[in-house]
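Hi support team,

I've been running sequence recovery on a batch of backbones for a student project. Most finish fine, but this one hangs at about 90% for roughly twenty minutes before it completes. I'm not sure whether the input is malformed or the queue is just slow. I've pasted the structure tokens below so you can try to reproduce it. Let me know if you need the job ID as well.

Thanks,
M.K.
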């Protein structure tokens, strides 16, 4: 009954001119996507079809034929966790996993000749640290409680960027979460790219210059073993990460030049 009702609905759509063709149940819920693709969220399937893997496989095969006839480049399936058994049926027809997050996975099948032109998902993770300076030219440093280097190494507060988060916002958020210090983004000081990091993906680490807007430290004891304000000169010569050390030395030289220029200007004014 549900197949007949669905096809009757599709036939009415064809007569009204809203769609050109709709022979499979999947095509009734398919959406056009960028780059000549079509996608179906299996959460929208009729319940009988979602429960019957054999019926689903047959309907999926028919939908793929329709996509090829329309010269679609790529077919996508969004599979909620509760319907994960349908992923096996899709795999038998040539679908492969592209990504999985939360309670859903996305699979695709390339329908054109040649290798698929679908970019790999999530090739990098982005970590952001804040070099926070106060008016006394002290830098905010932390020791991780559970870091890869243990809690003997002073480092800059920071962490991974959230999805859709601006780099400056990440630095401000991480500094606040780890140390309780409010800060303001000033500039990007440097970055490094580490291939083959966690889960075989690349890691980009960015250091931002931040201006302190508060002074009282309230560390996150779950993540941070120790936290303090350290003279920038001392941190520039401390045992720390290579990039942190390079950036700290660069900023220290800049601070020193500005200090000497200010002193020279005051002397000249006094002499005049």
């Amino acid at each position: 009954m549900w197949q007949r009702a669905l096809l009757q609905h599709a036939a009415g759509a064809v007569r009204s001119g809203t769609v050109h063709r709709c022979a499979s149940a999947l095509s009734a819920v398919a959406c056009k996507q960028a780059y000549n693709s079509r996608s179906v969220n299996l959460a929208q399937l009729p319940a009988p079809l979602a429960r019957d893997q054999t019926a689903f496989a047959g309907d999926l095969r028919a939908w793929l034929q329709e996509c090829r006839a329309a010269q679609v480049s790529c077919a996508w399936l969004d599979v909620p966790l509760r319907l994960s058994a349908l992923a096996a049926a899709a795999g038998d027809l040539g679908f492969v996993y592209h990504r999985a997050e939360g309670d859903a996975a996305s699979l695709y099948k390339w329908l054109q000749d040649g290798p698929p032109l679908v970019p790999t998902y999530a090739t990098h993770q982005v970590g952001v640290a804040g070099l926070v300076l106060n008016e006394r030219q002290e830098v905010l440093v932390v020791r991780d409680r559970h870091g890869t280097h243990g809690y003997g190494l002073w480092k800059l507060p920071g962490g991974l960027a959230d999805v859709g988060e601006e780099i400056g916002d990440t630095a401000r958020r991480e500094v606040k979460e780890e140390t309780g210090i409010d800060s303001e983004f000033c500039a990007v000081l440097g970055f490094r790219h580490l291939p083959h990091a966690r889960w075989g993906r690349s890691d980009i680490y960015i250091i931002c210059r931040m201006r302190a807007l508060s002074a009282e430290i309230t560390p996150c004891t779950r993540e941070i073993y120790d936290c303090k304000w350290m003279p920038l000169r001392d941190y520039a010569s401390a045992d720390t990460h290579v990039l942190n050390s390079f950036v700290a030395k660069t900023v220290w030289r800049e601070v020193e030049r500005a200090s000497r220029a200010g002193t020279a200007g005051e002397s000249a004014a006094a002499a005049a």
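--
Follow-up from support: It reproduced on our side and the slowdown came from queue contention, not your input. Residues 130 and 171 are 5 Å apart (CA to CA). No action needed from you.
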